[in-house]
Design a protein that fits this description.
mainly alpha, 2 helices
Amino acid sequence: MQDMQLLNEGFALMGLGMGFVFVFLTVLVIVTTLMSRVIGRFFPEPAPAAPSRPGRAAPAKDDELMAVIGAAVHRYRQRR
């Protein structure tokens, strides 16, 4: 008889613990969602600035960068 009583108390304690965790996680999700909505309403993200010119950066900078990289590779190969 005592084993059955201990088993019943164990199941009751397990149900209580799982219920508490379920309620806590549900409250956590609700609070997080509400907080996100409040932050979104009172502190909206600024709109991203439109690019002045669609496309790549200035080609002169790319050419200069390629020349510097080429010189570095050439110098590295000369030393090895």
